[in-house]
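Appendix C: a fully annotated inverse folding record. The material below is reproduced so that readers can follow the format used throughout the book. The structure is listed first as tokens, followed by the designed sequence.
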């Protein structure tokens, strides 16, 4: 039958599909066996998962359509059986609530799952896990209990969760497999673990020797609030002799799946291992030595068949390879098997390149540099498979008789020309005219820099004046080295990177969080500068992942992909335990039950979840620093790359100290919402500044398909906790109070964040801001500041920067500031069309530095109008945004204080035409400012501080 349609506001497609299912159900009931019918009903109920979740984004029609169908299914014994045995516990509860018409309870469950995740504690009967029942925390909040049978665990609730973390061969040919495996909700100590090899096409499993280990990092991906799985780690060993015996005993079977079984009481769950740890195990598994004459066991892995071992037999092999400069030499021992009649390099789409045999006929050589067209351009790589022409006339790939390690010893992996073997053990020759590799990494003793040692391998003997140019790059940030130099005359070099950064000339701070690829910048034959990845090799590769917990950051060095390209992960300084869901749950629980005394002398400020220390909170903080110097001012930071105002204390979000302050600070100031678990204590005073006068509908006015059950529940709690709601104007006061359900009287003081725009220091601040950004006084600055879209997952703006730069000419400099909600998804490094100022700490500096603003529906228009400078509105999706996505609070087209355009070409034309309605002399602009920013006179922060403190 047709697949289930995607959820959408109109339930017509769903209704049609359910009618089809109901028709098919009659046939299933009449013709299928009981087992087949149960399976069919289970699949149909499972198909509804996304539609049940979509109930929070839709109205009664969608809910009632689902309710009618699910209730009819569950009235039959087959449907009930399918519900109990085919769906996991949360889906069983949701469908049962749906059938009973309990919409509020459905929304409550969905909100709880969004807030806290899907894990739950278990209750065991008579101490036996086999009779355990699930106890999801939301049960206590439902309007009435659910059927207890829904909570009894069944097989679908206990999937085996496993991962391979290590796969290594010893010199003697033994294989060691490391990994972890657990059953959700059950302590690994209560489980018996078995690991074995299952022959292909057979149910027979040969047990392996297994030892249990501890690894606290398992709890990070497990994301379980209630149970630790640190004891789920294991090591399984396959001796070399056992591999040969397995092949003999299985009657020539050439493949075995690595099979894991966990038993707890009467529960027994078995499966293959389908995932690997990308930080510890490359996609191409290492190759071990032969198990016998011309045969080896290799490791393979994919998501469908999981980890498995496969026997490979080679027609022709070599154990002797030498690489000298551009020459590859391969030797054969006649006693070790057939010596090929000829040897050649093969690559798809190209004629083969023959090796030259010596007089004995057992030694073959080829000069890779002499092969026509062999030298790839720039940093590109040429890869050949070595193939042998056998005496019987067949051509077969040449097998490597040693292991991956012995090949690395025979052929320098840092050289421009080197040999490799595939995951199947076949020999390859790889040429890159200049190859940069890294062999050592260390954090300096003071924790302020990262030291990387590597080698530049070149095919030519021409000396390089300077070592390779390396950089660290995320999609949003570049880090240049402090120093780089040669260590010897043979291509070894050292590059030192800072672990702090003064990105905007405002003082040193930690690096921004992110995944920094180690790249080499090169100039190709066309003069274009490109960045290529740099792999880790040798002792460094063996040590990865390397981890360091510093005062300001956590660092992880890992290898990615088949080449093990080096990546530096930078994040907030947290231990492995602090990163787990269990630790977070403990902190939330401690916060919720806190009875610590209130500190009326402290203020906790937060802006956009700690991504900035700015907005109106910053202006109030600065005023308090002068008027109440004894007040302790704390600022939430997402990580320590966020600059903090002078004389203020940063506190890491969701750290123990942050939770303590959230519970005990006498004053709370936020421009957004605190997390779902926040509950204001009666003695606290909460100032909500919000982050802009709204044009687009927000809060409870947002279309239901644009919000979640969790967000709507949070809004109700948040507004009830506010003691003061700051507003820029009477319009903003009325709109915000209505949208959020605020029952108090908003404080119409003007926006504190705009005080700087009219201050006496504004002119000097403009010059200083432009200096920090590297903008000359004679350049015009276009600031592009778009809002985000509910239905656009990517951070791609509508402005074509390249086209705009080309048409505006060198007189203009473009600044781009992405919305905080999608800032983490932007890709702005590696281009020279604009300056990415998304993380610039203070937006007022940008308003002052700019000569004009380009925006769309952002509240920036209500702030920028205070400057009196031109505004332009790039709105190609105006009709959709206005009529279906969000909607507006006023006639935007009639009141917009500047030209509205739908393309980059039209925007540039309007800018160059110097449209009069975009500047302060336009009547519409003046009316707009009078209505929406009448009190932005430079004293709003002082008024707010005086009213509260």
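Designed amino acids, in order:
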């Amino acid at each position: 039958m047709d697949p289930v349609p995607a959820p959408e506001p109109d339930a017509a497609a769903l209704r049609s599909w359910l009618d089809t299912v109901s028709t098919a159900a009659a046939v299933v009931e009449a013709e299928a066996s009981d087992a087949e019918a149960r399976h069919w009903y289970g699949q149909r109920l499972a198909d509804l998962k996304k539609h049940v979740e979509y109930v929070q984004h839709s109205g009664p029609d969608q809910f009632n359509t689902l309710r009618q169908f699910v209730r009819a299914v569950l009235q039959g014994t087959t449907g009930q059986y399918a519900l109990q045995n085919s769906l996991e516990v949360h889906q069983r509860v949701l469908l049962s609530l749906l059938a009973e018409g309990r919409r509020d309870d459905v929304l409550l469950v969905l909100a709880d799952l969004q807030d806290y995740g899907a894990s739950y504690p278990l209750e065991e009967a008579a101490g036996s896990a086999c009779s355990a029942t699930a106890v999801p925390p939301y049960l206590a909040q439902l309007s009435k209990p659910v059927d207890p049978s829904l909570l009894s665990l069944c097989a679908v609730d206990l999937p085996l969760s496993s991962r391979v973390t290590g796969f290594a061969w010893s010199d003697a040919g033994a294989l060691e497999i490391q990994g972890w495996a657990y059953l959700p909700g059950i302590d690994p100590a209560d489980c018996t673990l078995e690991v074995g090899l299952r022959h292909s096409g057979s149910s027979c499993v040969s047990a392996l020797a297994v030892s249990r280990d501890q690894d606290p990092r398992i709890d990070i991906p497990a994301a379980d609030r209630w149970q630790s799985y640190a004891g789920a780690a294991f090591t399984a060993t396959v001796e070399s002799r056992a591999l040969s015996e397995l092949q003999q005993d299985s009657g020539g079977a050439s493949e075995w799946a690595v099979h894991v079984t966990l038993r707890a009481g009467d529960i027994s769950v078995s499966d293959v291992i389908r995932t690997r740890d990308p930080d510890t195990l490359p996609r191409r598994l290492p190759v071990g030595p032969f198990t016998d004459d011309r045969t080896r066991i290799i490791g393979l892995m994919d998501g469908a068949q999981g980890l498995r071992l496969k026997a490979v037999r080679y027609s022709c092999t070599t154990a002797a390879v030498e690489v000298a400069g551009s020459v590859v030499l391969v030797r054969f021992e006649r006693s070790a098997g057939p010596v090929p009649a000829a040897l050649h390099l093969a690559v798809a789409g190209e004629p083969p390149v023959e090796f030259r045999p010596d007089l004995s006929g057992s030694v073959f050589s080829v000069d890779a540099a002499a092969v026509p067209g062999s030298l790839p351009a720039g940093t590109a790589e040429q890869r050949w498979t070595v193939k042998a022409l056998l005496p019987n006339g067949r051509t077969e790939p040449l097998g490597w008789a040693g292991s991956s390690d012995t090949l690395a010893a025979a052929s320098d992996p840092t050289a421009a020309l080197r040999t490799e073997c595939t995951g199947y053990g076949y020999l390859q020759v790889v040429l890159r005219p200049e190859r940069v590799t890294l062999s050592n990494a260390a954090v300096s003793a003071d924790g302020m820099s990262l030291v990387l040692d590597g080698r530049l391998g070149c095919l030519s003997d021409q000396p390089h004046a300077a070592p390779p140019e390396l950089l660290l790059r995320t999609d949003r940030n570049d880090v240049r080295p402090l120093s780089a130099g040669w260590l010897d005359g043979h291509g070894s070099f050292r590059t030192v990177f800072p672990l702090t950064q003064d990105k905007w000339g405002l003082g040193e701070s930690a690096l921004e969080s992110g995944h920094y690829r180690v790249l080499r910048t090169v100039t190709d034959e066309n003069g274009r500068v490109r960045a290529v990845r740099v792999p880790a090799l040798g002792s460094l590769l063996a040590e990865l992942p390397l981890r360091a917990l510093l005062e300001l950051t956590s660092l992880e060095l890992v290898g990615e992909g088949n080449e093990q390209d080096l990546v530096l992960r930078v994040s907030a300084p947290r231990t492995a335990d602090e990163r787990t869901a269990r630790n977070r749950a403990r902190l939330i629980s401690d916060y919720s039950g806190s009875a610590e005394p209130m500190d009326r002398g402290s203020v906790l400020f937060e802006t956009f979840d700690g991504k900035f220390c700015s907005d109106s909170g910053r202006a109030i903080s600065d005023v308090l620093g002068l008027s109440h110097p004894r007040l302790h001012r704390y600022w939430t930071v997402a990580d320590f790359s966020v600059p903090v105002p002078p004389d203020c204390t940063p506190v890491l979000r969701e750290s123990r100290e942050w939770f303590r302050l959230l519970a005990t600070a006498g004053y709370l100031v936020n421009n957004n919402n605190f997390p779902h678990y926040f509950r204001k204590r009666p003695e606290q005073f909460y100032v909500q500044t919000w982050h802009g006068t709204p044009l687009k509908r927000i809060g409870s006015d947002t279309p239901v398909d644009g919000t979640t059950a969790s967000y709507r529940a949070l809004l109700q709690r948040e507004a009830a906790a506010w003691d003061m709601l700051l507003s820029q104007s009477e319009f903003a006061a009325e709109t915000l109070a209505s949208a959020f359900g605020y029952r108090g009287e908003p404080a119409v003081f003007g926006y504190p964040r705009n005080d700087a725009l009219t201050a006496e220091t504004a002119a000097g601040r403009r010059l200083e801001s432009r200096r920090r950004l590297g903008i000359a006084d004679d350049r015009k600055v276009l600031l592009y500041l778009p809002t985000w879209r509910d239905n656009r997952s990517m951070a791609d703006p509508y402005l074509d920067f390249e086209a705009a730069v080309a048409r505006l000419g060198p007189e203009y400099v473009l600044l781009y500031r992405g919305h905080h909600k999608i800032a983490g998804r932007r890709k702005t490094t590696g281009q020279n069309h604009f300056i990415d100022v998304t993380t610039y700490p203070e937006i007022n500096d940008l308003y002052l530095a700019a000569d004009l603003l380009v925006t769309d529906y952002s509240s920036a228009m209500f702030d920028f109008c205070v400057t009196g400078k031109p505004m332009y509105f790039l709105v190609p999706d105006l009709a959709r945004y206005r009529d279906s996505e969000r909607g507006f609070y006023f006639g935007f087209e009639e009141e917009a204080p500047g030209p509205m355009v739908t393309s980059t070409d039209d925007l540039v034309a309007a800018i160059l035409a110097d449209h009069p309605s975009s500047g302060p002399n336009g009547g519409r602009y003046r009316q707009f400012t009078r209505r929406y920013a009448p009190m932005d006179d430079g004293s709003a922060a002082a008024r707010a501080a005086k009213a509260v403190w």
